[in-house]
Structures are given as C-alpha cells and as structure tokens.
UniProtKB/TrEMBL annotation:
Matches recorded under Pfam families: HTH_20
Protein name as annotated: Helix-turn-helix domain-containing protein
InterPro entries in UniProt: ArsR-like_HTH, WH-like_DNA-bd_sf, WH_DNA-bd_sf
Residue ranges that the Swiss-Prot or TrEMBL entry lists as coiled coil: none
Domain of life assignment: Bacteria
Amino acid sequence: MAEAETHPAQGQGELDESLLRAISHPLRHRLLGMLDGRTASPNQLARELDLPLGRVSYHIRLLNDLGAIELVRTEPRRGALEHFYRAVTTVWFSEADWQKLPRSARRGILGQNLQHIFGSVTAAADAGGFDAASSVVLRAPLELDEEAQTEIADLLRETIERAREINLRAAERRSNGNGASTTATELAILHYERRE
C-alpha cells in the first residue's frame, strides 16, 4: 500500500504476534523499511529522519531483540562502537496481519508512508530526479469491479516483489565487486479508491 511496506505478496506467512505488534508502531515500521535492502547504523537513520539518536536507538534495540533486524558489523567511532544493522524480515504485512492491526495503527503507518513518498517525490522533482530515461510516471484512472480490484492488487504486489528481487541481485553484484556504480532510486506504487 505504501513505500513497499504495507502488504506483502500473497501467500507469505503471517507474522509472530509480538513482531506484528512491534512493527505496527509507525517509527519502528519506518526504521525496518529503511533497513530493508541496506545496512545502516542508528546514527545514520537518526540523521536521515532528523530525530534524536536516543529515540531511534531505543526502537532499533526493540527490533533487534525481536529478531526483525540483525547486527551486521561494528566500526570504531570516537572511542565507541557504531553498530550497523540490516532487516531480516520484511516490513510488509500479509492481508490477514494487516487486518489484525488496529485502525489507528494502519492509518499511522499509511500516513507516515505517504508523507515519505510525497516528500521524496517533491525533492526528486525539484532536483531533476525524473530527468533520467529510466524514470516512469504513469497514471491510469480505472473503473473496477471487486474481482478486477483483487487482480490489480495482486499484480502490483508481484511487481514490487520482482523489483525487490532485482534490487537483491544488484546488491549481490556490488558485494562481489562486479557491479557498476549505483544510483539510489525509489519505487512507489499507489492504487486506491478515488474519493470526490
């Protein structure tokens, strides 16, 4: 539903109840999404989110304790160790898990994801992020019955899963030293009921 974070491909297993509760918190959900496909430290994440390091570190510890993320490495920094983590579980919810969340949690996660998408799109547009030939901006107003809505939702989930697989292959090429230089991109797919 938002930022490749809210719903997984159909058929993915349901989440453990404690993990479901943990990542239903909008900030933990956002942090887990930021660690999906990359490695970062709480310090880096706090700077990116413009939040206090203590607040981010607290939520990172909770995610680590639940096994949603793992410590990848440490690096010495000014007499201390900086810890770097990556996600080991997806930030997506199955349809069943998504429905288990309280409406306030669903709306909080959705609101945070939409804020991120709109902010990212605006910044990219202002800085020429849509100038590349590979950029895509498409829109298709539709009139769908319930069966067609389900088909579209499945198609979009499959597309995101495929994009994540492509990203993993690029990461493998980078780690093997076989990849060319990379460009940070973002894929956001929106499909929603139009409300006048």
